[in-house]
Amino acid sequence: MISFGLVCSKGHSFEAWFKDSATYERQVKRGLVTCAHCGSAKVEKALMAPRLAGTKKGRRDKDAAEPTQAVAKAAPDPQAVALMKELQELRRKVEENAEYVGDRFAEEARKIHYEETEKRSIYGEASEEESKALAEEGVEFARIPWLPRTNS
Fold it and tell me: What one-character-per-residue DSSP string does 68-125 give?
């Protein structure tokens, strides 16, 4: 596992753990890495210095192991916490009341819009291009910031 210091486009700093650097890159590309404070998917690695292994006696050069840029650990913003809870509740309600269609979302939404299939609530994934095309066709849908499940 590897921990990366991250920063979102709004300047919020936070940390996240990944299996390896390639996993981080894949998840960022898919928009799965979001800011812990505001939910923005526009994140990038913060400037950090590597941790250096110590000697056999456990000593190390403290200056070399410290980050080059300090990241303050701030208490969570109460409004952000409340928003996260609301988004988690929204996810629960959508999952309970709609059919998951995965990456077929655009196709299924069109079928419903053009009355080729029964009207029903669906959810799934759509690329930016698919979303733009649906909007141009007048297909009604909403984009929801989907929070990952947590164990706590």
Answer: SS----PPPPHHHHHHHHHHHHHHHHHHHHSEEEETTHHHHHHHHHTTSS----EEE-
CA angle 106, 95, 140 (to 5 degrees): 35
Q: Residue 121 sits in which domain range?
A: 78-137
Q: What value, to the nearest 5°, has the Cα angle with vertex 59 and ends 53 and 61?
A: 70
Same domain, 19 and 40: yes
Q: Are residues 88 and 128 in the same domain?
A: yes
Q: Counting every residue, how long is the chain?
A: 152
User: Among residues 113, 118, 125, 121, which one has the least CA distance to residue 97?
Assistant: 121
- The token duo for 22 is 């390639």
Provide the domain count of the chain.
Answer: 2
Summarize pLDDT for 9-46 with one digit per residue, the tens: 888 888 888 888 888 889 988 888 888 788 888 888 88
- At 18 the pLDDT is 85
* Residues 110, 13: Cα–Cα separation, whole Å: 39
Contact indicator for 8, 37 with CB cutoff of 8 Å: yes
97-30-43 Cα angle (round to 5): 110
∠ CA(34), CA(39), CA(44), 5° rounding?
40
